[in-house]
Amino acid sequence: MILYNVTIILDEEIHDNWLKWLKFEYLKEMMSTGHFISYSVLKVLDSPNEGITYCIQYIASSIVKYNEYMQTSPNHLQSNVPAEFLNKFVFFSTLMEFIEAE
Fold first, then answer.
1. What pLDDT digit, counting tens, does each position of 66-101 carry?
2. Dmax (CA) of the chain
3. Nearest 5°: phi and psi at 46?
4. How many other CB atoms sit within 10 Å of the CB of residue 35?
5. Dihedral class, residue 34 (left if φ above 0, else alpha if ψ from -120 to 50, else beta)
6. Which phi and psi angles does 27 have, rounded to 5°?
7. SS3 of 27, please?
8. 96 class by beta-carbon count within 10 Å (0-12 exposed, 13-18 middle, 19+ buried)
9. φ and ψ at 60, to 5 degrees?
C-alpha cells in the first residue's frame, strides 16, 4: 500500500473557511477519483512554522493507482483551490510505501 501525504501550512485568516472547503468539497472530489481507498486529516500540533499546519494522508492500494492519479490529476490541489485561499498557503507532498503496519 502507498501513502501519499500532503502537508499544508495555512495563514490563520483562512483556516476556518479552508477547513470547511476541505471537509465538504475537496476530500469528496479526491475520493471520487477512485485512486485512493481512504484518507486521514491530521493537524500538526508542534509545527515550527508560522500559521496552521495540516497533513492529509491518502492511501492507495498500489503504486499503479497512485501513478494513475498523478497522470490524470497531478495539479489537483493547485487547480481546485478557491480564489480566496490563493497565496495564503504553501504545501509539499511525500510518497511512502508501507513496510509494516498493524
1. 999 998 876 665 567 788 888 899 999 999 999 998
2. 40
3. -120, 40
4. 22
5. left
6. -65, -35
7. helix
8. exposed
9. -110, 145
Q: Which residues contact 29 (CB under 8 A, 6 or more apart)?
A: 76, 80
Give CA torsion, residues 65, 66, 70, 71, to 10 deg. Answer: -30
For the chain, the straight-line distance linking the first and the last C-alpha, in angstroms and rounded, comes to 13
List the alpha helices (DSSP H) in 1-100. 15-21, 27-32, 63-72, 76-79
User: How do residues 49-71 score in pLDDT, each as one tens digit?
Assistant: 889 999 999 999 999 999 999 98
Backbone angles phi, psi at 76, to 5 degrees: -55, -45
User: Residue 85 is placed in which grid cell?
Assistant: 485561499
Q: Locate 22 and state its grid cell.
A: 476541505
Instruction: Please identify which residue in the block is written with the cell numbers 483556516.
Output: 15
Instruction: Quote the CA–CA distance of 59 and 62 in Å, as a whole number.
Output: 9
Q: Cell numbers for 34, please give them.
A: 477512485
CATH 1.20.1070.10 fits 2-97, yes or no: no
